[in-house]
UniProtKB/TrEMBL annotation:
<dbReference type="GO" id="GO:0034599">
    <property type="term" value="P:cellular response to oxidative stress"/>
</dbReference>
<protein>
    <submittedName>
        <fullName>Nuclear factor erythroid 2-related factor 2</fullName>
    </submittedName>
</protein>
<feature type="compositionally biased region" description="Polar residues">
    <location>
        <begin position="334"/>
        <end position="344"/>
    </location>
</feature>
<keyword id="KW-0804">Transcription</keyword>
<dbReference type="Pfam" id="PF03131">
    <property type="entry name" value="bZIP_Maf"/>
</dbReference>
<dbReference type="InterPro" id="IPR004826">
    <property type="entry name" value="bZIP_Maf"/>
</dbReference>
<feature type="region of interest" description="Disordered">
    <location>
        <begin position="302"/>
        <end position="321"/>
    </location>
</feature>
<feature type="compositionally biased region" description="Polar residues">
    <location>
        <begin position="351"/>
        <end position="373"/>
    </location>
</feature>
<feature type="domain" description="BZIP">
    <location>
        <begin position="496"/>
        <end position="559"/>
    </location>
</feature>
<feature type="region of interest" description="Disordered">
    <location>
        <begin position="332"/>
        <end position="384"/>
    </location>
</feature>
<comment type="similarity">
    <text>Belongs to the bZIP family. CNC subfamily.</text>
</comment>
<dbReference type="InterPro" id="IPR046347">
    <property type="entry name" value="bZIP_sf"/>
</dbReference>
<feature type="compositionally biased region" description="Polar residues">
    <location>
        <begin position="401"/>
        <end position="410"/>
    </location>
</feature>
<keyword id="KW-0010">Activator</keyword>
<dbReference type="InterPro" id="IPR008917">
    <property type="entry name" value="TF_DNA-bd_sf"/>
</dbReference>
<dbReference type="InterPro" id="IPR047167">
    <property type="entry name" value="NFE2-like"/>
</dbReference>
<feature type="region of interest" description="Disordered">
    <location>
        <begin position="396"/>
        <end position="455"/>
    </location>
</feature>
Length: 605
DNA sequence: ATGCCATGTCATATC
DNA sequence: GCGATATGACATGGC
């Protein structure tokens, strides 16, 4: 393989074909085409850039349409639904002083559209220049000089560096939803880190990034390997593969950080606690500084935590000392596949067996703890490991299903009233802007096993199954089969639907079974109690009758003695009770019988 | 740290 | 034979 690589620069077409064959043979071993042939890689890069330019033009048109549509919509924070905008399309601008603290808050109600965010990003951080593309970007790609004209409607897409950058355009293109992040539209001093954090908190951006990165990886032959993202170490940039057209200079390219920090996302609620000073705008961004920045939410919230230093140091040590396995070093898929390379694995993910062997984003998330998660956070993360794994695997696999009606972002192609799932779940499931778990255990407790219930819902969403789980489970078999026949479903979807139906029915059956068992147990307990009561009653009755019997015997003895004492012989003397006894025949006649035998026996003795 | 409990899931039997 | 249901066993998470 080394020989091939060394001589690849002068490869003839025949050799290239041979290389291609060899590469295809070695692809199972994880080898990449770029390893073999530099010229081929360059050729592919050119083709890819050409495609990107075409895609850019197409996406630009789409974005214009989306923009027009989204101006009429706003995101309902509670339901996650996109509601027609009741307020004027020009949101009131928060005062400049409050910008630093409110710009990242998602609860204030003001919304920053996705385009605005990306505009802000592009203008604040003209990273186009830092990306080392195989070929220089087109000359017309220039960073925006100022943030002042940050209104997207003030700039045409041609003027926007975002639109002009093929990569950014590709990353931004599929968005369809407005982002509920308040922002000042004035030329307030927004520093780079703030801009990035703001963007990092956008689920749509995360979604788009993942999809676009997936596309880029696909184009570069990275889809055949499903490598989990294991490395969240500050040095993870060294583990990144050489992605042509993507990024190789990590230290100064926030987009890579953006891509790599999905799981370590700063919770939006904490973002507003971050205050960064504008002078940092010109800070040289190293990987460490950015990582620290992105992972310091808890250090901000718990500045006095005595565990913090331990967590930061010890956990980081663990991360650094952890031997890296080959599968962990390659990160071409980031978290896009989460180690699940097949739908079958994905479907079995709830078994709890296969997951243990999968390098999970949770692990990387734990690794992120070295950047400021407290000890309690680590504990919480650990307890939610499987949940977290699944959440990622589900949503990410869903994005690979391009046929899915749910894969186009938060705004589904389904009509709003025909969405089989609550739209809030769609947004929540696809956007990773929120921590997948909450520290509010009481809330989780009160929710019971809703999270378990939602597993299948998430799976269904991920695979783009256009039915509600409840429908799948509760529909009569005929209606169910009819429903299945009415929709074009692939094998994976059908398998999942039948599994969902089986599990759902079995869950209800188990509940009924346990209910019956409990009822049976309680019935038996009641029966036992009744029997005990009956037994006690009978014992009392027996004792009472024994008493009566004893009394009757005593009365009979007294009567006998009285009768016997009144008997007289021929001489008028009373009979001795020891010599005679009174006996009664069956007809009621009484006889005085001498105790002869007893006397004789006594004489014999 | 550990045990208990509730629940989900699977495998299998039965209807 | 197939699907629904029942149930024992096990896993998991919360307390």
């Amino acid at each position: 393989m080394m020989e091939v690589e060394l001589s690849s620069a002068h490869r003839s077409q025949q050799d290239m074909n041979l290389i291609d064959i060899l590469w295809r043979q070695d692809i199972d071993l994880g080898a990449e085409r770029e390893v073999f042939d530099l010229s081929l890689r360059q050729k592919e890069d050119e083709l890819r850039r050409q495609r990107e330019l075409e895609e850019e033009n197409r996406l630009h048109l789409l974005r214009e349409q989306d923009k027009a549509l989204l101006e009429q919509l706003e995101l309902d924070e509670e339901t996650g639904e996109f509601m027609p905008c009741l307020l004027p399309s020009e949101p009131e601008l928060p005062n400049t002083e409050g910008n630093q603290n409110t710009i990242f808050s998602r609860v204030d109600g003001d919304a920053l559209s996705f385009d605005e965010c990306m505009q802000l990003l592009a203008e604040t951080f003209p990273f186009v220049e830092t990306i080392e593309l195989p070929h220089p970007p087109p000359a017309h790609i220039m960073p925006s000089p100022s943030i002042g004209n940050s209104r997207p409607d003030m700039l045409t897409s041609q003027q926007s560096p975002v639109a002009q950058n093929p990569m950014l355009s590709a990353l931004l293109a599929p968005h369809k939803a407005p982002i509920a992040v308040p922002v000042s539209l004035e030329p307030a001093p927004v520093d780079v880190e703030q801009a990035w954090m703001e963007l990092l908190s956008l689920p749509e951006l995360q979604q788009n990034l993942k999809m676009q990165v997936s596309d880029i990886l696909d184009q570069n032959g990275y889809t055949s390997t499903s490598m989990p993202l294991e490395v969240q170490d500050p040095n993870y940039s060294f583990y990144l593969p050489e992605l042509p057209g993507l990024v190789t200079n990590i230290d100064t390219t926030p987009p890579v950080l953006l891509i790599n920090n999905f799981k370590g996302m700063v919770p939006p609620d904490n973002l507003n606690q971050m205050t960064l000073k504008p002078p940092e705008l010109n800070t040289t961004y190293t990987t460490d500084s950015l990582c620290k920045l992105f992972y310091t939410d808890h250090s901000n919230t718990k500045p006095s935590s005595p565990m913090l230093s331990y967590t930061s140091n010890e956990a980081e040590k663990e991360v650094r000392h952890k031997p890296l396995e080959p599968s962990e070093i390659h990160v071409p898929q980031f978290s896009l596949t989460d180690g699940h390379s097949s739908a079958t694995e994905f479907l079995d993910s709830d078994s709890g067996l296969s997951m243990d062997n999968v390098s999970s984003p949770m692990k990387s998330h734990q690794d992120d703890s070295s950047m400021g998660y407290s000890d309690s956070d680590l504990e919480e993360m650990d307890s939610n490991r499987s949940e977290y794994r699944e959440m990622f695997s589900l949503s990410l696999h869903g994005e690979e299903q391009q046929s899915s009606p749910f894969n186009t972002g938060p705004v589904s192609h389904f009509p709003a009233d025909s969405l089989p799932y609550p739209k809030s779940e769609l947004i929540e499931g696809n956007g990773h802007n929120q921590r997948p778990f909450t520290k509010d255990k009481s809330r989780r407790r009160s929710a019971g096993y809703q999270s378990r219930l939602s597993r299948d819902e998430q799976r269904a969403k991920a695979l783009g199954i256009p039915f509600a789980v409840e429908l799948i489970i509760n529909l009569p078999v005929d209606d169910f089969n009819e429903l299945m026949s009415k929709h074009q479903l692939n094998e994976v979807q059908l398998v999942l639907i039948r599994d969902i139906r089986r599990r759902g029915k079995n869950k209800v059956a188990a509940q009924n079974c346990r209910k019956r068992k409990m009822e049976s147990i309680s019935g038996l307990e009641g029966e036992l109690e009744a029997l005990c009561e009956k037994k006690a009653h009978l014992l009392r009755e027996s004792a009472q009758r024994n008493g009566s019997l004893k009394e009757l015997k005593e009365q009979l003895g007294s009567l006998y003695l009285e009768v016997f004492s009144r008997l007289r012989d021929e001489e008028g003397k009373p009979y001795s009770p020891s010599d005679y006894s009174l006996q009664q025949t069956s007809d009621g006649s009484m006889f005085l019988v001498p105790r002869v035998k007893k006397t004789l026996k006594g004489e014999d003795k």
